[in-house]
Structure formats: structure tokens, C-alpha cells
Amino acid sequence: MIAYPQYRKLPAEYLKQKIDEYLTEDIPTFDVTGEGIFDKNAKSVAYIQAQQDLIFAGTQLFEYFFGDEFEVKVMFEDGAEVKNGEVIAEISGSTADILAKERVLLNLLQRVCGIATLTNKYSKIANPHNVKILDTRKTTPGIRLFEKYAVVCGGGYNHRMDLSAGVLIKDNHIKAAGSVKNVIDRIKSMNYNLPTELEVDTFDQLREGLEAGADGFLLDNMSPERTIEAVKIVRESPGGDDLFIESSGGITLETLAGYVSTGINAISIGALTHSAKSAEIHMEFKNG
């Protein structure tokens, strides 16, 4: 079965590099407002609070925004359900520093929690049927790893990280190469030692792929009825029970239930990352 590495945690070097980059973008020299108002010795306590029910992602972020000179308490683990009004984290330290980092921290938290929350809605429908909800490469440039990590926090699974991580033959590859057989033969001759997945939208392509030795199939824009028929074709072929089958193409929360009992292994949903609404989270300072 085709499976890819899962990003349950973010690499330390990646986090440091990205957060340094984001903070430099927002604070190229210094925060003229915060540092103009507050003495460098001024201390405050700030709370990160949910303004909606959400699935939390981002436990690692806080240690890279706030060093040892801050006291930070994160109240939830990744994947936890957070109710509207609950405090996610408490930060104690330099008033000016907290204010300077507020916007970038919230931007990231809102984004990853929004993705985790949407993914969880899909996963709750699919998980009882042993169907995996997969992400795609339809991510925001520059924060792909954050977004894929958020999908896992929400109960979903990571598809290939990038074009180097796996072979996925799509319709334009087939058109440019001339046939399914041509493209699979060419890929197999490269000895990549990677599984070969083939996107199909007709049963003829599916049968060609089986004959050519594809390791899995992406059923593109097939109705649930056609999906059941495609699964039957694959499973009844030699070794078909071991082949990976995923559905994709405009499947929504409203249509998902029609696919989860068709016999597929997974459903890839680009909307998890390209259409997720950022979660409503804010920062409040303790008075006094």
C-alpha cells in the first residue's frame, strides 16, 4: 500500500528558520509603537484565547517565539478540542516583546488551527470506514510543512510532500507521453524505488494501468457509483487487494458520505489547505 511520511511534529531547524523569517518580515528594525510606549523592563501576562470551537495545532510554536526569558504555559496538546472562550496559552514576560510578536504568532496559529479544524470534520466522517483523509500539494507557498502538519493534527494524513517524494502520473503526463503504458514503462525504467500512482478518469485507463503494473490509482472526478465499479475492477485483478485506491476531485463535506463506503483506501481533499478558514483566536492582556 502506498504511504508517505507523516508530519506529526515540525523539525526544529525548520521552525527556527521560518519564525525568524516571519518576524524579520514584520519587525525589520524594531516595533516603533511598542518600544516607544513601554520601558524595556515592563512585564505583562497575556492570554491566547479561542473565539470559536476548534481543533488545536501549534504546541511547538510558542518555544520558538518566546525564549527562556518568558514563562509560557500551553494548555492543550495538538489535536485537542478547544471550546469557544477557553484559554489556549498564557505568556508572561516583556510587554514590548509580546506585543511585537503577537500578530505573527496569531497569524500562524489561526492558520494551522483552521486547517486542523476543517480536517477534523472530514476525518470524523471517514475514519469509521477506515478511509484516510489526505492532503494535497495545493498549499500556501512558503508554509507547506506547517499546513501538512496541521492536517495531521486534525486527524488527516499527509500525501506526498513534494514532486521528489513520490510518483503520481496525472492526465497531462499521459497526454504528453502518448499512453498510460508509455509513461509507466518510462517511470519504471528510472529505478526510482518509489511507488507509482496513476490518476485515471476512465475504466480503460484503469485497466491499462493494472496491466502496466501501477501500484495505486487516483480516481479523478468519479461518482460514487463509478467508484464502486472501479474498485471492483482493481480488487478482482491479480494482487488487487494490495493496491492503493484514492478518490479525488471536488469531494465536499456534503458529498463525502457517498464515497467512504465504496471500498477505497483514501480521499484527497485540496480544500483542507486551499480553502480552510483561519480559526478565530485572539490575544488579551491581563489588567494590572
Number of strands: 12
Radius of gyration: 23 Å
Mean pLDDT: 96
Bin the strand percentage.
Answer: 15-25%
Q: Largest sheet, order of strands side by side?
A: 6-11-10-9-8-7
Instruction: Tell me the number of helical segments per DSSP (H or I, 4 or more residues long).
Output: 10
Helix content: 25-40%
CATH architecture of the largest domain: Alpha-Beta Barrel
The figure for the number of domains is 2
CATH superfamily of the largest domain: Aldolase class I
Largest pleated sheet:
6 strands, parallel
Shape: elongated
**CATH fold name of the largest domain, please?**
TIM Barrel
Briefly note the structural class of the backbone.
alpha/beta
- Low-pLDDT runs of 5+ residues are none
Question: What would you say this structure looks like, in words?
Answer:
With 288 residues, this protein is of the alpha/beta class. It has 2 domains: 12-122 and 277-285, Aldehyde Oxidoreductase, domain 3, CATH 3.90.1170; 127-274, TIM Barrel, CATH 3.20.20.70. Helices cover 39% and strands 18% of the residues. The chain has 10 helices and 12 strands. The chain has helices spanning 12-26, 32-37, 61-65, 95-126, 144-153, 171-177, 180-189, 203-212, 224-235, 271-274, and strands spanning 43-50, 54-55, 71-74, 81-82, 87-94, 132-134, 167-169, 196-200, 216-220, 244-248, 266-268, 281-285. The strands form 3 sheets. It has a 6-stranded parallel β-sheet. It has a 4-stranded antiparallel β-sheet with strand order 3-5-1-12, covered by helices on one side. Strand 8 (196-200), helix 8 and strand 9 form a beta-alpha-beta unit.
